[in-house]
Amino acid sequence: MSFAVMLLALVIGVAIEQAAPSSVYTGFAKPPILICVVAYYALNFSPAPLSDQDGRSGQPGGHSTTLMLSAAFIGGILSDSLFALPLGITPVVFAAVGSLLHHYREKVFSGKPVTNIVFGAALGLIMPSAVNILLLVFNQSVLAPWPSLGHRLTGTPYSFQPGLLFCKLVASTAMGAFLFPLIYFLMKRLELLTGVEVLRNSQDDIDSNN
Amino acid sequence: MKRNIIFFVFFLMALGILFSLPEEQTNVLSGSIRDVFSFQQSALRRVAGWFRAVLSDKYELSLENRRLRTQNAKLQNEIRRSRPLQEENQELRALLKLKADSERPLLAAELIVRDVNGWWHMVRINKGSEDGVRPDLPVISPEGLIGQVADVSPHTADVMLLTNPKLKVGARLGRSDVVGIVRGQGINFQESALYRMDFIMKDAEVSRADEVVTSGLGGVYPSGLVIGYVENVQEDASGLFQYAEINPAADFKALDIVFVVLTEQSADPSGPGRRSHDAGTSRSGGGKP
């Protein structure tokens, strides 16, 4: 069920992201919806349940690494296919960002609106920066030793325009700050509506009791 | 924990396989995904257009307008083809043993995604290899050349716009034999595009508002497609050539219906152009220079 909800969120997210209008003033930035969905699966966790009467806490619950990496992979493939990027670039960025967030989520993420805004802004900034770096690196033919690999990735028509990139980064950061709290809230509601959240919490309780 | 590590290794392996797949295979995958979403994009655009038209009480007029614009574009193409100068051009072409390629059929297509990825200037149209579209084919609007087909899937095609600085077109001035290479200069903050025509001979006479058309050299673009009009001319840094800033003939903000300039082979459903893409999707290295 969790997987189906994730797939639904990704499909709706990519459709909205593609249909969203863009302007030269925003550096043609698209709203970073997919990375926000991946970040939700990386960051969302339940507080540690009490495991026994002493009050010692058990393992905190939350989305698994498996689900987060699946979201990164599927979301990345959808994104690369629809946005005409070389297939494989976005899954790498999604997975790297998702893994980092997933690893430190208990230390840095509280789930409060302010934290969500800060994380959203960071995601909005990181995503285009990382894609820009990868496109520039691939265009420099650093993959020359691997011709079969390099041919596909170095053939992009990307040309670096600093002014446009600056606009894109600013716009994407702003959109991320606005969108992530909203997507986090909507994803929580969706999981509650479909029963995923309840099921996961029950599973956490069972695990901690055992 | 162990399960997570196993899945992480599995993920890395999947990425490795994805990166090492041949281009044709990845294009089949990405083309299929594009096709699935193209129906949703077409529907969204239609619904949005319908709402706009109904709200402004101009639905019938907009349909009529669309029909007339299509007809207008075809007629303009006819006029262009029937210019007396064209005959002279063809005679010269025959003398030079060049293939006369101005008789190429047009395929009307609708824009379904205006800005594909935000990294380079590309639009998506609702015609693909099933309709005879092939990579590298020129795409025009009623006003002039807008770019060339880059990626093709069975039901959609991505068109690289001429505003992209990496796309180059062999060009000549309409009223003379002065040739050069036109390259996009991106889009400025007034959201208007600008091209630059390089390698114009130093002693060539170039005037403001001169028409710039495709030269036909290189074989990708047929000759005579209008690119734009000269805005100003300057000497380049080397001092050996001139360059001209060109105002595009096409209005990129108002793109709605465009035309793919087909070849005889691709227009023929049983032709080799069609057969070569039935297996899946194609991407041209030339389409992404």
Can you walk me through this structure?
The complex is a heterodimer of chains A (about 210) and B (about 290). Chain A has about 210 residues and is an all-alpha fold. Chain A has eight helices and no strands. In chain A, helix 2 crosses helix 7 and helix 4 packs antiparallel against helix 5 (about 115-140). In chain B, about 35% of the residues are buried. Chain B is built from six helices and 13 strands. Chain B is globular, with a radius of gyration of 21 Å. Mean pLDDT of chain B is about 75; it is low at about 95-100 and about 270-289. Chain B is an alpha+beta fold. The longest helix of chain B has about 35 residues, at about 25-55. The interface between A and B is large, with 48 and 48 residues.
SSE topology:
The complex is a heterodimer of chains A (210) and B (289).
Chain A: H1 2-19, H2 33-43, H3 65-82, H4 89-108, H5 113-139, H6 147-154, H7 162-194, H8 196-209
Helix pairs in contact in A: 1-3, 2-3, 2-4, 2-7, 3-4, 4-5, 5-7
Chain B: H1 2-20, H2 23-55, H3 59-82, H4 84-95, E1 106-113, E2 122-125, E3 138-140, E4 145-152, E5 157-161, E6 168-173, E7 179-187, E8 193-201, E9 211-214, E10 226-235, E11 241-248, E12 257-261, H5 264-267, H6 272-275, E13 282-283
Antiparallel strand pairs in B: 1-2, 1-12, 2-5, 3-4, 3-12, 4-5, 4-13, 6-7, 6-9, 7-8, 8-11, 9-10, 10-11
